Amino acid sequence: MKITEHIKNAKGKTLFSFELLPPVKGQSIDWIYKGIEPLLEFEPPFIDVTSLREDYIYKEQENGLLQKVSYRKRPGTIAICAAIIHKYKIDAVPHLICGGFTKEETENALIDLQFLGIDNVLALRGDARKADSSFVPTPGGHCYATDLIQHIKNHNAGKFLHEDVETFKSDFCIGVAGYPEKHFEAPNLNTDFKYLKQKVDMGAGFIVTQMFFDNQKYFDFVNKCRENGINVPIIPGLKPISTLSQLNVLPKIFHIDLPDELTDALSHAKNNAEAKEIGTQAMIKQCKELIEFGAPVLHFYTMGKPDQTKEIAKAVF
Ligand code: FAD
C-alpha cells in the first residue's frame, strides 16, 4: 500500500515507522530481523531501507591494524525490502539514489521493485563521495532528485529508456527528502525550498525530513510548506542521541543544530549511558509535542539498533 494511503487510513492518528541500513558485507540478514522484531509491537505500516553508494573496504596492515583502502557500494537494499514484505507483510520503502547508478541500473532496479510488488520509493540524490569535495554525478546517471523523480514518473507511464512499453506501467508512490534546517549546499532556505516545491510539483507524494532536535524548526518548515502550496504529508525523521560523541558528530555530518537545552543537559553527562538517557528523555518530549502538532508519522533512524527507539515508542504510543 502507498504511504499516502497508510496516512489517510490512520485518520489523523500518528503512525510509527523506522529506517534501517543494509548490513555490512558478510553479515547475515538476521541482523536486520533483530533490528525489526523488537519494534513490531508498535505496528509500523512501513519500514525504509537505505541505499549506500560507498562502503569502506579495509585491508589489514603489517602491524595488524585495519586501514581503509577504498570504497564500494553496499549491497542489499532491494533484497532486504523483499525479505521484509515476505516475512512481516509490512510495506518496505527502498531508497533510490542518483549517485553510483547509471540510468540503466536505475531502470533495472525499478523493474525489480515492480516485480516484487513494492509500492513506494524514496527518491534521493545521495551525498558526495568521500574523495570528492562536492557531488559528482555518475557518468550516465542522474544529477538531482528531480531527475530521478522524472525517471520514476516515466516508468509509471510505461516509458523506458530505449522503448515505451504501454502494458508495463507501474504506480510507485514517490517520497523525497526535506530539510527543516536547509540542505547544506543550498545558498539559502528559499532556494532549497524552491527545489523542494519542484520535487512535490513533479509528483512526490510525501516528504521525509532530515533529523532535527528543535521541534520549532519542523513546525516552521511545515508552515512554510503549507503557505507555499506544498500540501503532501511531511514525516519528521528522528534520531535520539545515544552517545556523547554525537554532540559533535551529528551537527558535522548532518548539518543540523542541537538546541541549548539539549547541549546543556548533555554537558553534565559523565558517560555514554548517561548521554543516552538524556537523549531518550529529550526525544520522548519531542515526540509528544510532534504528536500534539499532528505529525502524520514518527519516523526513527534506528541504524539497526532498536532498543532506544523501543523505549521511546513505549512512552509515546
Ligand atoms: P536534491 O533534492 O537533488 O538536492 C540537492 C541539492 O541541490 C540541494 O541543495 C538542493 O537545494 C539543490 N537542488 C535540488 N534540485 C536542484 C535542481 N534541479 N537544480 C539545481 N539545484 C537543485 N543518502 C544516501 O546516500 N542514501 C540514503 O539512503 C539516504 N537516505 C536519506 C533519507 C532522508 C530522509 C534524508 C533527509 C536524506 C537521505 N540521504 C541519503 C542523504 C541525501 O542523499 C543527501 O542529503 C543529499 O545530499 C541530498 O539529497 P536530496 O535528495 O535531498 O537532493
What is the element layout, followed by pairings?
Layout: H1 3-9, E1 15-20, H2 30-36, E2 46-49, E3 52-60, E4 66-74, H3 77-88, E5 91-97, H4 103-115, E6 120-124, H5 145-156, E7 173-178, H6 189-201, E8 206-211, H7 215-227, E9 234-238, H8 246-254, H9 260-267, H10 272-293, E10 297-301, H11 307-316
Parallel strand pairs: 1-2, 1-10, 2-5, 5-6, 6-7, 7-8, 8-9, 9-10
Antiparallel strand pairs: 3-4
Helix pairs in contact: 10-11
Bound molecules: flavin-adenine dinucleotide.
What does the model show?
This protein has 317 residues and is α/β, with parallel strands linked by helices. It has one domain (3-57, 76-315): TIM Barrel. The protein is built from 11 helices and 10 strands. The protein has helices at 3-9, 30-36, 77-88, 103-115, 145-156, 189-201, 215-227, 246-254, 260-267, 272-293, 307-316, and strands at residues 15-20, 46-49, 52-60, 66-74, 91-97, 120-124, 173-178, 206-211, 234-238, 297-301. A hairpin with a 5-residue loop joins strand 3 and strand 4 (66-74). It binds flavin-adenine dinucleotide. Flavin-adenine dinucleotide binds at residues 50-51, 53, 95, 97, 124-127, 144-146, 177, 183, 185-186, 191-192, 195, 208, 210, 237.
